[in-house]
Design brief:
about 350 residues; HIT family, subunit A
Length: about 350
């Protein structure tokens, strides 16, 4: 029978349509790279084609100067940025409406020189190097007081919104706090105010101790599970078991362990679902800059928030019902998804 579910963080309902449940093989699609079959010679992200991108912002390279080959990870401005630099914010009101300049930043992190690789296929040291670059760029963008939030995300496959198949992630800095992030933070603040505990830490304890049927993996200081109110089939969340509100504050050991769990998690999805298109999103704390007239705005952030990574396979389509109601229909119960993913045989040594 169908079941309506509501979690403590997201202010939305999900319909778990168990009667529509399918086998993992029923979700396999060949749409992932539809329209993205560009060869390395034409790919602007491949070594030797550095002149096809805007001048790089940062790179890790073995030798050579800026915008030359022999790099390991490269960061460039997005050629068609969603937001960009302005001399002022330009806040203004127009009757009932508000507007401001499209202030922000939009960067592309090219994860590897290897055109045909996926993040799941990269050596652990290369994944760790990417995490180092993520941290470095988020920290740098946080130095700008106008940037209220920095979102790290990855679109893998055409169905997930990627325009190039070469492995890459993106960073967008926004001058306002997105409403979904604001809601998560508010839920965490309210919970902490009542109980003086982190709501995410309590969720981790509950998921790990009450049967663990949604747990995919608990290892190396991290836990991976399919959320109780998962909006999409095989949706996963990676949480650090240690409490930390800000992704950029990880130590070297924690980053190395994250590389391992990220590789294993992406490999599980790739092996089970034949490399599905997905979106990966980092949910970290906002830029803790002082707010005019609100000296205590982020007073408890380090205690009540908890960074995490969401991985959302794009195996079903959002249609009229979802747009009209805000309800999502998930035909794969999270408990079943976790069971299938736990059963995936991973290569030894990771």
């Amino acid at each position: 029978m169908p079941e309506l579910r509501h979690g403590p963080i997201s202010d939305s309902w999900v319909i778990i349509a168990a009667e529509r449940a399918k086998r993992p093989s029923d979700f396999i699609t060949d749409e992932k790279n539809n329209g993205l079959k560009i060869e390395p010679a034409q790919c602007s992200f491949c070594p030797g084609n550095e002149g096809k991108t805007p001048p790089e912002i940062f790179a890790v390279r073995e030798r050579g100067g800026p915008n030359s080959p022999n790099w390991k990870v490269r960061v460039v401005p997005n050629k068609y940025p969603a937001l960009q630099t302005y001399a002022e914010l330009g806040r203004a009101g127009i009757g009932f409406f508000d507007k401001m300049h499209g202030v922000g930043a939009h960067e592309v992190i090219i994860e590897t020189p290897a055109h045909h690789a996926d993040l799941a296929d990269l050596p652990l040291e290369q994944i760790k190097l990417n995490i180092d670059v993520f941290v470095r760029r988020i920290r740098e963008l946080m130095k700008n007081d106008w940037f209220r939030y920095i979102l790290l995300f990855k679109n893998h496959g055409a169905t997930a919104g990627a325009s190039l198949s070469h492995p890459h992630s993106q960073l967008i800095a926004t001058p306002v706090l997105p409403s979904e992030v604001r809601h998560r933070i508010k839920a965490a603040q309210n919970y902490y105010e009542k109980k003086e505990r982190c709501i995410f830490c309590d969720l981790i304890i509950q998921e790990c101790t009450l049967g663990g049927e949604r747990i995919v993996e608990e290892r190396d200081g991290y836990v991976v599970w399919s959320p109780y109110d998962a909006r999409f089939p095989f949706a996963l969340t990676i949480f650090p078991k240690y409490h930390l509100h800000d992704f950029t504050l990880m130590n070297e050991g924690q980053k190395r362990e994250l590389a391992r769990v990220l590789k294993r998690t992406l490999l599980r999805l790739k092996l089970l679902l034949n490399d599905p298109p997905f979106n990966m999103v980092l949910q970290t704390s906002p830029n803790p800059i002082p707010r005019p007239g609100k000296p205590g705005y982020w007073a408890t952030l380090q205690y009540d928030y908890h960074w995490h990574i969401e991985i959302l396979p794009r195996l079903t389509r959002v249609a009229g019902f979802e747009w009209g109601t805000g309800f999502y229909i998930n035909p794969m119960p999270p408990e079943e998804a976790a069971k299938h993913l736990r059963a995936v045989a991973l290569p030894e040594g990771i």
